[in-house]
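Structure ticket #2291
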Amino acid sequence: MRVAVLATDGVEQVELERPWQALEEAGAEPELVSLESGTITAYEHIDKGATKKVDTTVADADPDDYAALVLPGGVINGDFVRADADAVAFVKAFFEAGKPVAAICHAPWVLVEADVVRGRRMTSWPSLQTDLRNAGATWVDEEVVVDGNLITSRNPDDLEAFGAAIVDEFAKSEDDEAVDATA
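Resolution: structure written out below.
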């Protein structure tokens, strides 16, 4: 299972690394999709952290090539990604195809911009709750929320539960695709 991980400079390092690791341990193939080629710089809160090589740009990526999407958080990352038209269209395509999407912390900003949260029950970093409510979501303060094909989580403290939910929900989606393919 190929999984797109959409992030750019300013991504919260642990929110990129831990879901990535959970995906790899489950046998998935995560690929870093970003706004530009080269490398991105992750952050540990407000301090620069590690760099990571970009696999492809969002302008060149095809959502049909991926089974699922992960949106890691970070204030800078969330803001830059939601301001990129190609990134917003990429995210929206996953919803239109009914593919699973996971977002943590500030990443739901991108979902608001893609206009895919209306009627959804979800969580995020607390400062996004008004944005999510104004976009039509029901915001709750829970570790992980699964609403159909959408998985959301609040912050780095929730990463263990977030990673487990990603692996579980993405595996269900893959099983559903296998059943659909044999029908």
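Closing remark: The first strand starts at residue 2 and ends at 6.
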